[in-house]
Amino acid sequence: MTGSPAGAEASERRAILDGERLAGNGIYLRLVELADCGERYRTWLGDPEVNRFLETRWAEHDDWAIREFVSAMRMSLSDYLFAIVEAGGGRHVGNIKLGAINWRHLHADISYFIGEHDAWGRGVATEAIRVATRFAFERLGLHRVQAVVYADNSGSATALERAGYAREGVARLKVRIGDGWTDQLAYGMLRPESVSSDPA
Ligand SMILES: CC(C)(COP(=O)(O)OP(=O)(O)OC[C@H]1O[C@@H](n2cnc3c(N)ncnc32)[C@H](O)[C@@H]1OP(=O)(O)O)[C@@H](O)C(=O)NCCC(=O)NCCS
Description:
By secondary structure, the protein is an alpha+beta fold.
C-alpha cells in the first residue's frame, strides 16, 4: 500500500484486510502482499508449463512490473488478488484473482494459477475457486462469477466444474495456442439465491 491518504481510504473500504485468512480445505487465501513479489513469483510467470494457457505469457514480467501490478490490485476497489497458501506449512503456491468486478451488474471474473508443479492435481485450484467464489457471494454481495478457459486446459475446466461452475458456452477458435487457434470455454456460477429468483 502506498501510505497516501487515497491509499489508506481505499484500503479501509476493501472487504478484507491484510492478515485475514479465508479458510478452505487444506488451503487458505489471503491478500497478495508486496513481500510476495520476489523471484518465486517471477519464476511462476515465466514458466512455460504454468503460463501455457495464461494471457500473462505475452509479456515479460520483471520484479518492477510484478510490484506495480500487485500495488494496483491492493489499491483497487474492483479487484481482489489472493495468495493461495497451503494450510500445513504455509507455502504460497499460486494466486487467484477476483476481478474486474462490475458493480452495476454485480458480477466478476475469476482467474488463477498454481505456480508450484508439485501442488498440481491435489485439489488446490478447486478449493481456491470455491473459497474465492464464496467470498464473492457472501462478502462482496455479487450474484455471478465467471471464467474463461482454453479448451485444451482440461485441469482448469475440471476444477471449475468441481467447484460448482456450469459450462455456458464455447467461443470457437477464439484464442491462439502454438501455431494455431483453439476454442475458449465460458463458465459461470450464480449465487444460489439468484438461481431461485431466476424468472426462467
Ligand atoms: C490448471 C490448474 C489450475 C489445475 O490446478 P490443480 O490444483 O492441479 O487442480 P485440481 O487438483 O483442483 O484439479 C481438478 C481436476 O483436474 C485434474 N487435473 C489437474 N491438472 C490437470 C491436467 N494438466 N490435465 C488433466 N487433468 C488435470 C486433477 O487431477 C483433478 O481431477 P481429479 O480430482 O480427478 O484428480 C493448474 O494446473 C495450473 O495452475 N496450471 C497453470 C495455469 C493455468 O492453466 N491456470 C488456469 C487458467 S484458466
